[in-house]
Amino acid sequence: MKKLFLTALLAVIGFLSQAQKLEKAKDLYGKKKLTDAKTEIDNVLAVEKNKTVADAWYTKAKIYGAIAADSSLKSSIPDARGTALEAMKTYLDLESKEKDAAKRNIQLTLDNNAPLIELYTGYSKDAASFYNANNYNDAFVNFKNSLAVFDLLSSKGIIPIKLDTTTTLYAGISAEKAQKPDDAAVYYGKIAEAKAKGEGFVEIYKWLADYYRRKDDATNAAKFSALGKEVYPNDPFWTGFDLDLAREKGTKDDLFKKYEQVIKENPDNYLFLFNYGVELYQTGYDPDASKRPANSKDLIAKAVEVMNKTLEKKPDFANANMVLGQIYYNQGVEINNENKNIRPNGAVKLTPDQLKKKDELRAQTAQKFDQAVPYLTKVDELLDVQGKLKMEDKDNLKNALDLLIIINEEKVNALEQKKRQAEAKKDVAGVKAIDADIKKIQENVTKYTDKYNNIDRKH
Fold first, then answer.
1. Which residues contact 258 (CB under 8 A, 6 or more apart)?
2. Rounded to an integer, what distance in angstroms lies between the CA atom of residue 55 and that of residue 327?
3. Most confidently modeled of 18-27, 91-100, 101-110, 311-320?
4. What is the largest CA-CA distance in the chain?
5. Is Cytoplasm included in the keywords of this UniProt record (predicted)?
6. Distance between CA atoms of 419 and 335, rounded to whole angstroms?
């Protein structure tokens, strides 16, 4: 019985001894004897059973926080603020187990949350100093730690705010400047997911969308593009980005559906129509017919339809006129090549059916070239009267004139053949009429050739 009593008495003495050490650490802290206070609280928490005492961890957080704020002591314990933060986390975790909610975090409440607020301001102040000194890596570390304190304040309901927008922004900027884009994306992402809006914030949404696109993460790229469009609906960036994303990461069908959606949302924008037409034609046409998709004709027909709609909205758009002229010209060339492939086999003459087919193909070629001429001529009319041209416009003018020369030369060749046929029939009147037509067309060839040769000098 005496042995049991003695054991209990020793336990009480031990408990009182540890309590006295904790009180001594508090007393030393109050007297600003921080080095001694640190030694004392470390000894208290070196005892295993004391590690469940919330008051001990709270005291440690205050002591280490004070050391971090003391310019003469902080260099001796480089991570004093970090140690204080971890001690505060442990204190809050232990307090959260208190059954009576009213008794939780009493010490912190009595101190008006000063230890946490001091940690937050301390990290923020250091972060700002590093940032202003262009030391972005250490700035990022301290902004990140400042946010860790903020998240602690927020998660425990000590403050009602869920996002420290300014600090989060600078954490992202610092990480980006420190060449840590993955970290920057985390903090920029918090701002975007909160749909934060402010001066220059639109660039954050753009940065995130582009960052994930370059990471081949189409899901997140689309997510942040959608958020950006929701917060900044009038910025034209989103439409172009979504089209680029569909072009790079999706199928052609995805891209064309996106164009249809964009055009529906922007009915007055002729550029979306034009770009859609170009995409359709480039998908459907290849100089090598064997490389074209099965629905090539449908795609090209759709391209013509869309390009005509473009010109309905902007008749003086040289680029659209050039594309339509090129489409019809290429179709004429293909028909002409088909005609050329119908040749005699050895000494055998062409059959009547073959001759008939060639006549039909010549007529179809001429029809396509005639369809191309008004658009190519319009390009000439629109651009030749201007002064110095941009490179794209100069190329369009050269190409239009070049095709007009070829088309007219083909017409001359066709008329020369008709002339020979008329001469064989001794059709004097017919020959005379054909000569007049040839002369007129040759004048066009000369006119367009002279213009072509003078483009660089004139423009």
1. 242, 243, 246, 250
2. 82
3. 311-320
4. 149
5. no
6. 22
